[in-house]
Amino acid sequence: MGAPLQSVALVARTLSLLYDKPLVGVNHCVGHIEIARVITHSRNPVVLYVSGGNTQVIAYSHQRYRIFGETLDIAVGNCLDRFARVVGLPNDPSPGYNIEQLAKKLVFNYYIHGFDFTDAPGRGKRMFPLPYATKGMDLALSGILTAIELYTTDKRFRPALDAEDNGQDDIMTPADLCFSLQENVFAMLVEITERAMAHVGSKEVLIVGGVGCNERLQEMMGIMAQERGGNVFATDERFCIDNGIMIAQAGLLSYRMGYRTPLEEATCTQR
Predict the structure, then answer these.
(1) Angle at the Cα of 99 (from 165 to 179), degrees rounded to 5?
(2) Which of 6, 21, 50, 235 has the most CB atoms within 10 Å of its CB?
């Protein structure tokens, strides 16, 4: 990412000098949050920012966004994308979306939190145990990814993406594993988000970032928010994934508040 970012920064500085226009640096995360707040009309939400590169629980306090919890290793989107490659899911339209669709393929004959999903359409059929790694307000995902990948080496695993059990109980399919991964990881995200809501006294949750498109994540978060007498807000794929309008919105807000980026500070450093 270093070279593309440096190239775009060079173009931005050049345009600023050519047309005598001010530069306004925008935080990528804040861009996601601000455009979602405008679209959903959420007032003071706890923000769950979930994407391929970030997993953070954020809230606004004392004139700035503050991180209350985050991943200690890899991001949730990275976790899903890497497992999608392991089971051979395509990148079109995105690995995470294809995991979501595969997890919906079968009927999930199990009880979760008192809800009977026996007749619910589009659920994975079996849920396999995985590590549950919340650490206070933070979470860890690399161990879960390793554990789910190990299931694909089990002799019971049927690697074909269209594999079905045909009445056999002692097998596991890609749909089962995708469902298990989603349910486990999303439950962890719901837990740390609920802790942040209790800490700041908010009844609103705003889900942003590419993984925020996932309907199952929105559903699970909605159940938690409803039980607390609150609401969950999310946008569709047009605004969940990276887009230009989110940068424009955050830049406009910063500009109106008098923020400017000096030319000598408009650089990129690859870390």
Answers:
(1) 50
(2) 50
Rounded Cα distance between 75 and 193, Å, is: 15
pTM over 0.85: yes
CB 29 within 8 A of CB 58: yes
* Amino acid sitting at position 8: V
> Which residues are CB-neighbours of 48 under 8 A, at least 6 positions away?
56, 57, 58, 189, 193, 205, 206, 207, 208, 209, 212, 221
Token pair for 145: 């990814």
Q: Contact at 8 Å (CB) between 71 and 139?
A: yes
Paired strand residues for 55: 50
157: alpha, beta or left? (left if phi > 0; alpha if psi -120 to 50)? beta
Strands (E), the chain: 46-50, 55-61, 64-70, 111-112, 115-116, 134-135, 138-139, 204-208, 231-234
Half-sphere exposure in the Cβ direction for 186 (13 Å, CA): 24
Q: Is beta strand 46-50 parallel, antiparallel or unpaired with respect to 55-61?
A: antiparallel
